[in-house]
């Protein structure tokens, strides 16, 4: 099966392209948002293939995976030489994000579109978005297993936030000074500079650095379930997380501490940093939970079933 999709979310796409299909990735000379092509900091297999606008227009495509409103509003049609997603080519819209705004107004951009299927990556997102009559599914995240790498040798907490300064309260960046006084925090992610963090390393190096820290701290207030949280669990790290969006359902009690009380989170970070034995035990439980729920085989199997259904 030939699947056209834009490189929008690198970690999610990394999992998807591990499947058995051909994944066609639009590429432009500037490698901007509408043509990033293959990833530069993730390892992608050979079946993730870059295509230019001219190549895409002449290629038989079995299904399109849309991820942004602009892709549905003309971008995809231009790349496909006039073929319209949902009419001329089967289409699935993948929603990665939790909705923003007043709950009564959280209507999805593809609401009441019976010509495509809307896929949410969390049950929380499915609950909060109003899709009207559009057929919807939930296919939870999958992660390429980085292996058990936890050493916890550094009595510090790892935090991963992309664009921490810009996103501010959404990502809980404002909570970091309150928590940083409890134990030292190491902030990773793009645009982490200026906040006591490090620049964004390649994924493999990031995992190695994370796993040396004794605990993973997830201060995100309002976003879809962060893949960095699931990756930390795969690494074997114990988790301390805000009990918001999907996190309470994703992190079992034995894997760490989940609460909306910042004082409870601060105490949990202190305790786990001070007790390597408990940290390691909870980290092992976190890894088992992540493998069972967010394993690659389960993720790809669910996508295969949906793709077979929409292209039948």
Tags for this model:
12 strands, five-stranded parallel β-sheet, seven-stranded parallel β-sheet, globular, Rossmann fold, 2 domains, 312 residues, single chain, alpha/beta
Describe the fold and architecture.
The protein is of the alpha/beta class. It folds into 2 domains: 2-142 and 296-311; 154-294, Glycogen Phosphorylase B (Rossmann fold, 3-Layer(aba) Sandwich), CATH 3.40.50.2000. It is built from 12 helices and 12 strands. The chain has helices spanning 10-16, 53-57, 69-79, 123-128, 164-167, 176-180, 203-212, 227-235, 247-250, 262-274, 276-294, 296-311, and strands at residues 2-5, 22-26, 48-51, 63-66, 91-95, 117-120, 136-138, 154-160, 185-188, 213-218, 239-242, 256-259. It has a 7-stranded parallel β-sheet with strand order 3-2-1-4-5-6-7. A 5-stranded parallel β-sheet has the order 9-8-10-11-12, sandwiched between helices. Strand 11, helix 9 and strand 12 (256-259) form a beta-alpha-beta unit. Helix 8 (227-235) crosses helix 11 (276-294). It is globular. Mean pLDDT is 93; it is low at 192-198.
Alpha-beta content class: alpha/beta
The total of helices stands at 12
**Overall pLDDT confidence:** 93
Which overall shape is indicated by the principal axes computed on the Cα atoms?
globular
Number of DSSP strand runs: 12
List the strand order in the largest sheet: 3-2-1-4-5-6-7
Quick gist of this model?
The protein is α/β, with parallel strands linked by helices and 312 residues long. It has helices at residues 10-16, 53-57, 69-79, 123-128, 164-167, 176-180, 203-212, 227-235, 247-250, 262-274, 276-294, 296-311; strands at 2-5, 22-26, 48-51, 63-66, 91-95, 117-120, 136-138, 154-160, 185-188, 213-218, 239-242, 256-259.
């Amino acid at each position: 099966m030939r699947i056209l999709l834009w490189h929008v979310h690198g970690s999610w796409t990394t999992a998807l392209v591990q499947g058995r299909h051909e994944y066609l990735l639009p590429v432009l000379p500037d490698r901007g948002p509408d043509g990033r092509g293959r990833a530069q900091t993730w390892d992608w297999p050979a079946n993730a293939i870059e295509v230019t606008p001219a190549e895409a227009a002449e290629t038989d495509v079995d299904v399109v995976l849309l991820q942004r409103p602009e892709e549905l509003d003309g971008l995809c049609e231009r790349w496909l030489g006039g073929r319209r997603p949902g009419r001329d080519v089967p289409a699935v819209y993948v929603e990665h994000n939790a909705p923003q705004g007043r709950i009564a107004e959280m209507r999805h951009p593809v609401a009441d579109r019976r010509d495509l299927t809307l896929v949410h990556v969390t049950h929380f997102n499915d609950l909060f978005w109003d899709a009207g009559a559009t057929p919807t599914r939930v296919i939870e995240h999958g992660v390429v297993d980085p292996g058990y790498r936890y050493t916890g040798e550094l009595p510090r907490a790892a935090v991963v936030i992309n664009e921490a300064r810009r996103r501010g309260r959404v990502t809980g960046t404002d909570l970091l000074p309150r928590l940083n006084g409890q134990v030292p925090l190491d902030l990773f992610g793009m645009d982490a500079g200026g906040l006591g963090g490090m620049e964004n390393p390649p994924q493999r190096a990031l995992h190695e650095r994370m796993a040396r820290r004794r605990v993973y701290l997830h201060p995100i207030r309002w976003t879809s379930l962060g893949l960095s949280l699931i990756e930390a669990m795969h690494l074997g790290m114990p988790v301390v997380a805000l009990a918001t969006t999907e996190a309470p359902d994703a992190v079992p009690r034995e894997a760490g501490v989940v609460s909306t009380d910042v004082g409870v989170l601060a105490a949990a970070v202190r305790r786990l940093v001070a007790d390597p034995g408990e940290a390691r035990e909870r980290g092992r439980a976190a890894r088992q939970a992540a493998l069972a729920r967010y394993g690659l085989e389960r993720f790809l199997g669910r996508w295969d079933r949906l793709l077979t259904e929409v292209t039948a």
